[in-house]
Write a structure and sequence with these properties.
Length: about 425
C-alpha cells in the first residue's frame, strides 16, 4: 500500500477532529490534523470591558474553566503591574486559587483515565472488561469538584477569581467540609486507583517499583507493558512549561537538559485546512502537559521512566496519572495551612486601569495555557488564547513534524495511531479560539 490517504473522524473528545492518514508501504508516513468548528471567543472579547474576560473565557471549556479564569485574571494582574500598579496577593488568595485549580486538574485527569485511556486501550488490545469505569470516574470527579465549589461557589464556569485575589471568604466550617471531601478522594484513589497508600506511592522513585502499584492504575500499567506501549508514540523528546505551579516551574527540557524559557519566543501560526493555529517555540515544536512538567521539574520517577522508555505512550500516560497523587497530597496541605484571617482580595473593585498589556500563564490539565490581553481606553482591543492542544496537535512544517504527528508516524494501523493520538487528550473546543 503506497501513498494511500485515509480519513478518520475522532469523536468522544471535547469536540471533534479529523485525521487524514497517509500510508506508505503499510506504515503511516504522515498525518494531517483538522479541526473544523470555529469558536471565536477571541473575537467575542474585543470591545468588551477588560474584566468581562473573567466571565467569558471560563466558557471556552466545560472542564478546564478554572484554568481559563486564572489565566485571564493573571493577564489582567500582569497588565496592571506592567502599568505600574503593584499587586501583592495574600497567601490566602494564592492558596485558594491553587486549591481550586488542583481540584480541576484532578477531576480532569481521573475522567481521562477512566473514560478515555483505559477503555480505549482495552479496546485496542482486545481486552475489554465488564468494569463500569464511568461510575468510578464520576465518583472521584464529583467528590473533588464539590471541594472545589466550596470556594468557587459553582462549577463549571465560576468567576470567583478577580484581580487582587478571590471573592470568597471561607469559614472554618467551609475548610472542614473541603478537607473531608479531599480525604474521601484520597481514600478512593488509594483503594481503587493505586491499591496502596498515597504516602507509599509518592515514596517511589524508580520504574522498578511499578510492581507495587495495584488497582486500576496498576492494571493499566501492566496492560501497557505487555503490549509494548513503552516502544510506541515517540515524538521529538522536547518539553516546555510556562506556568508556575507545584507541578513544575517554567522551563524547557531537551532530553534531560533543563533551561529557562522566554514567552516572547512563542510563535502562533495559521494552518491550512483547519481553524486551529499551530504553536512553536523558536520555530520548534515542544510537547506540553504532565510528561513535560515531570521532565522540567525533574520528578524522580518520571525521569526514571523516561530514561527507560523515552517520550513514549507509557511515559505520557504514567505522568498524567502520577499528577493525581501529587495534587491530592498538595491540596490537603493547602487546606491545612490556609490563613483565614488574611484578606481575600487586596484591590478595591473600583480600582481600574484603562490602558495595559498583560500575559497570564497557567498549567492546565493538558499543559501550558497562555492568555494575552491588550486593553485601551478600558476595553479589550486584542485577546489571544494559546491552548495546550495547539502545542501538541500542530500540523507539520517544512522543518519538522508536529508533536502528535511525529508520535503517530510509523504506526501500522489507524487504530494504533488514534490510540496514540488520544494519549495527548484532545480538546477541540479549547483549540479553535
Amino acid at each position: 500500500m503506497t501513498n494511500v490517504t485515509v480519513k478518520k473522524l475522532i469523536e468522544k473528545i471535547e469536540g471533534e477532529a479529523e485525521l487524514d492518514f497517509t500510508f506508505n508501504q503499510g506504515e503511516i508516513e504522515d498525518v494531517k490534523i483538522n479541526f473544523g468548528f470555529y469558536r471565536g471567543i477571541e473575537e467575542i472579547l474585543r470591545g468588551h470591558d477588560a474584566w468581562d474576560a473573567l466571565v467569558i473565557t471560563p466558557r471556552v471549556c466545560g472542564i478546564c474553566n478554572h484554568a481559563h479564569l486564572l489565566a485571564a485574571v493573571r493577564a489582567i494582574e500582569n497588565g496592571y503591574e506592567n502599568a505600574g500598579l503593584k499587586i501583592n496577593l495574600t497567601s490566602k488568595a494564592k492558596a485558594i486559587r491553587e486549591f481550586t485549580l488542583s481540584c480541576e486538574l484532578i477531576q480532569n485527569h481521573i475522567k481521562w483515565l477512566y473514560m478515555t485511556i483505559l477503555p480505549q486501550l482495552e479496546k485496542f488490545v482486545g481486552a475489554v472488561s465488564e468494569e463500569n469505569y464511568a461510575i468510578k470516574a464520576t465518583y472521584l470527579a464529583s467528590t473533588i469538584t464539590k471541594a472545589l465549589a466550596v470556594f468557587s461557589g459553582q462549577w463549571p464556569h465560576a468567576s470567583y477569581a478577580i484581580p487582587g485575589g478571590v471573592t470568597c471568604d471561607p469559614t472554618h466550617l467551609d475548610v472542614m467540609q473541603a478537607q473531608s471531601l479531599v480525604d474521601e478522594s484520597i481514600k478512593f484513589f488509594e483503594e481503587v486507583v493505586i491499591g496502596l497508600s498515597i504516602d507509599d506511592y509518592l515514596a517511589m522513585e524508580s520504574v522498578s517499583c511499578f510492581s507495587q502499584i495495584h488497582g486500576d492504575f496498576g492494571k493499566l500499567l501492566r496492560l501497557m507493558l505487555v503490549n509494548d506501549m513503552g516502544d510506541k508514540g515517540y515524538s521529538h523528546d522536547r518539553f516546555i512549561v510556562f506556568g508556575d505551579s507545584i507541578l513544575a516551574k517554567p522551563g524547557r527540557s531537551i532530553i534531560t537538559n533543563v533551561t529557562n524559557v522566554d514567552i516572547s519566543c512563542v510563535q502562533e501560526n495559521e494552518q491550512k485546512g483547519t481553524v486551529s493555529k499551530a504553536v512553536t517555540y523558536r520555530d520548534k515544536f515542544y510537547e506540553v502537559g504532565p510528561l513535560a512538567r515531570g521532565m522540567v521539574a525533574k520528578t524522580p520517577i518520571v525521569r526514571s521512566l523516561h530514561k527507560r522508555f523515552k517520550d513514549s505512550v507509557l511515559s505520557r500516560v504514567f505522568a498524567r496519572i502520577h499528577e493525581v497523587a501529587l495534587l491530592l497530597d498538595y491540596s490537603k496541605g493547602l487546606l491545612n495551612k490556609l490563613q483565614l484571617d488574611e484578606p481575600s482580595c487586596v484591590l478595591n473593585a473600583d480600582v481600574r486601569l484603562n490602558d495595559f498589556d498583560g500575559v497570564g500563564t497557567v498549567e492546565a490539565a493538558r499543559g501550558s495555557l497562555i492568555h494575552k490581553t491588550t486593553v485601551r481606553d478600558g476595553v479589550i482591543t486584542n485577546y489571544d488564547i494559546i491552548t495546550p492542544t495547539q502545542w501538541n496537535l500542530g500540523n507539520s512544517t517544512k522543518a519538522e513534524q508536529g508533536i502528535a504527528i511525529e508520535a503517530m508516524t510509523g504506526s501500522l494501523s489507524i487504530e494504533e495511531a488514534t490510540f496514540i493520538f488520544r494519549t495527548f487528550d484532545v480538546c477541540s473546543v479549547c483549540t479553535t479560539q
